[in-house]
Amino acid sequence: MTFEWAPLSKGDVGAWAELLAAIDEVDQVGGRESEDDLAELLADPRLDPAEGTLGAWESGRLVGYGVTMVRASAEPVHRMHLWGGVRPECRRRGLGGHLLEWAIGNTPVLHERRFPGRPLELHVQVDSRNEGLLALVARAGMTPVRWFYGMTLDLGAEPPKVSPPDGLTIATYRDDLEDAVREVRNRSFVDHWGSVRHTPESWRRTIVGVRAFRAEGSFVALDASGESVGILLTHCFDADTEATGVREAWIQIIGTLREWRGRGVASALLAHALHAFRAQGYDKAGLGVDADNPTGAFGIYTRAGFGIERRSIEYTLPLGPAVT
After folding, report:
1. From CA 39, how far away is CA 218, in angstroms rounded?
2. pLDDT digit string (tens) for 207-238?
3. Cα separation of 277 and 255, whole Å?
4. 160-304: which CATH topology?
């Protein structure tokens, strides 16, 4: 049986959500999205659905997909990611290879429209247990550049309390703090690998304006003058909750201004959030961390009780002029 290949559209979100659920049933990487989440993604101005998405159909059923979109910045290099997957029972039939070849050929076209002449890399993040995908990206000439941990903490037991440093208070996120919180994120992530500055538009499209954002589970550390110096922002994915029966608070961002690091700001924010999560009925908390994070984040999370649940590897393939 041959596959039919076509871009994804809003009319495909039901089939797409079902495919993601089938993939996660086997892979267990928490990649489920609701139909509304996927419609939101397709409406993102960074994504051109006609050229930045591709679906594989067999007998009217979606069996594979790929998505690539431009980023907000190309400094020092434009890192475009391929997000995709193949239905487990359809693997080893060339679908993954076709999607990767499509991305290798397609991302330079999308890139040149946004950042002509700038360096370009294609990135794929692979779960360390996915031997088939590890072999596929290696055959394509991609090389590993970074390692990440997915960490979780069971909220069945009450977390320890940690007081904020003297002079700081912790407030629940409010809309009037949006610009200040975005600035803390941008300044605190300057030394994070692969990070680019958020614009007001990208911030709303991906962090505080999406369905998954939970303002009541997001917190800001304020100094005596009311300035924001640390942040913790939380998402919750309803599709995962409905499928597993486990309500997880996913800590999307933790950031502390450089001049406030080493004083316990992040630990206090994390402890405050964990107590709030438990009171709000969450079963567990989760987050992702760069294994080589230069700020000591991994140690903060392990001391708070988080443990490694999964590992992933970031692979890259240069596709444009080299960084000079």
Report:
1. 24
2. 999 999 999 999 999 999 999 999 999 999 99
3. 19
4. Aminopeptidase (3.40.630)
